[in-house]
Amino acid sequence: MTYLFQILNGIGLGMLYFLLAVGLSIIFGLLQFVNFAHGAFYLLGAYLAYEGVERGLSFWVAMPLAAVIVAALAGVTERLLLRRVYKLPHTFHILVTVGLALVVQEFVIIVWGPLGGNVAAPDELSGVMILGDFIYPQYRLFVIGFTAILAAALWWLLDRTRLGAIVRAGSESPQNMALLGYDTLSINTAIFALGAGLAGLAGALAAPMRGVEPFMGVEALGIAFVVVVIGGMGSYAGALAAGILVGVAQSLMATLWPEGARLVIYLGMAGIIMAMPRGLLGRA
Questions:
Q1: pLDDT per residue over 118-135, tens digit each?
Q2: Rounded distance, CA 208 to CA 127, Å?
Q3: Contacts 24+ apart (CB under 8 A), 185-188
Q4: Per-residue pLDDT, 69
Q5: Do the beta carbons of residue 254 and residue 207 sit within 8 Å?
Q6: d(CA 281, CA 100)
Q7: Using CA atoms in the order 212, 24, 258, 280, what is the torsion angle rounded to 10 degrees?
Q8: Which residues, 6+ apart, have CB-to-CB distance to 259 below 8 Å?
Q9: In this structure, are residues 220 and 210 in contact, taking their beta carbons and an 8 Å threshold?
């Protein structure tokens, strides 16, 4: 039962990693932009959900509201700042987005303080599921189910709809899309806002599981890059597979060898890079 508990924990954790990483993967895959501020959007989503609940909002309102606010802020940032560096080398992408991440982190510390806080799970999901001898928190089950539905909806949106086709075509040939009358700059803004909004949503969902603290964005960014590298840059299915793989590995290692849980993840990433430089399902 202990291992089943940890595997379920790992799947739930992995689905959050997927949600976080897929936003990073979409932005890189469609815009060819390395976004080191992605963890900051996760951090902001968690704190906005925390603030909403503290002000008396239901978690069911605070969670999507946090994601929408993060997406809107990301869209404005992309329009005013980031689109100016798209055509510059990746070094400039890194410098600008790392600076942006530090600004967001300091903003969080100034507004909410250096100490962390807790977010209670919604009343409807505050209990546990009992199945014989097996007991599991309901909120974690909700996270697994909700993110699985969201993953399917996102795949359908990007791979099976006209909107998704326009987004993909805009990333591959912006000149042709402009000739057809599409506003490629607005498409880029929408892609960036979608990716950042997913990170914000992951932060809001994670808040009742692990609380909030000002440096959670740094850790999340590291995990997101590990998942993207293992799954393959720009690969949606790769991000899903790698997210679950990393989540389950981390959860099981937390039981077997707590001190080495993170070390194993990074060693695994190094092994994947050496054996499969494009990741498990990366594009050529």
A1: 998 888 888 888 877 778
A2: 13
A3: 185/83, 188/31, 188/78, 188/83, 188/86
A4: 97
A5: no
A6: 30
A7: 160
A8: none
A9: no
Q: How many CB atoms lie within 10 A of CB 89?
A: 8
- C-alpha–C-alpha distance, residues 276 and 30, integer Å: 22
3-state secondary structure of 146: helix
Contact 269, 280 (CB under 8 A): no
Closest of 175, 11, 239, 196 to residue 97, by C-alpha = 196
Nearest-angstrom CA–CA distance, 113 and 116:
8
pTM: 0.90
CA atoms of 26 and 33, how far apart (whole Å): 10
Q: Give which of 23, 63, 24, 59 is closest to 45, Cα–Cα.
A: 63
156 near 28, Cβ under 8 Å?
A: no
- The span from the CA of 181 to the CA of 166, in Å, is 11
Structure tokens at 97: 């987005």
- Residue 141 CB partners (closer than 8 Å, separation 6+): 8, 12, 129
Return the structure tokens found at 16. Answer: 């959050």
CA angle at residue 282 from 277 to 283, to 5 degrees?
Answer: 110
Question: What is the enclosing helix (H) or strand (E) of 166?
Answer: helix 162-172
Q: Which two tokens stand for residue 230?
A: 């293992």
> Please, are residues 38 and 228 in contact by the beta-carbon 8 Å criterion?
no
- Of 13, 4, 88, 21, the C-alpha closest to 226 is 21
CA distances from 201 to 66, 112, 122, 156, 176 (A): 7, 19, 16, 19, 33
Phi, psi of 89, rounded to the nearest 5 degrees: -60, 160
For the chain, residues with pLDDT lower than 50 are: none
